[in-house]
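ESCALATION

Customer reports they have been waiting on this structure for their group meeting. Please prioritize. Original submission:
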Amino acid sequence: MELLLDRLTKQYGSKIAVDCVSATLKPGVYGLLGANGAGKSTFLKLLSGEIEPSSGEILISKGERLSVLNQNQNAYDNYTVLDTVMHGHERLMQIMKEKDELYAKPDFSDEDGIRAGELENEFMELNGWEAEGEVEESHRGKRGHTRHFRPPAGRQDAPLP
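Update from on-call: job pushed to the front of the queue and completed.
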């Protein structure tokens, strides 16, 4: 995946939070450091689509998507690493949850069946069947071994991918 930032700017009145950023981000791990108020959160909100830039654009490789997790460090304490990463694709998680609820109904109706079919179609369009494999693959080390993650504090029993 390649992410292209072209003269990305975000301005609030006379305050410029992000000023004409251009970059090409290739696969890898990036860190974003800066003082409080430097525009880090604004920059990430721009990348995620949560807010629109004042000018400039963000381009992503065709067929790719960018998933974003909540910045709240405690938001995923009760989830496995795999589930946490999957939460980065909010719509896919909503579909999975609704499907699970429908299929668990003891009185599954014709309307439920129609809705389940709609959800299955959207799930396939979003490559939902491949999502878990993609997440696992993205967390493999250079030699093909899954990296080890520590469970969140207080969750020593948390399963690992």
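Sent to customer with the following note: Residues 110-125 form the longest helix (16 residues).
Escalation resolved.
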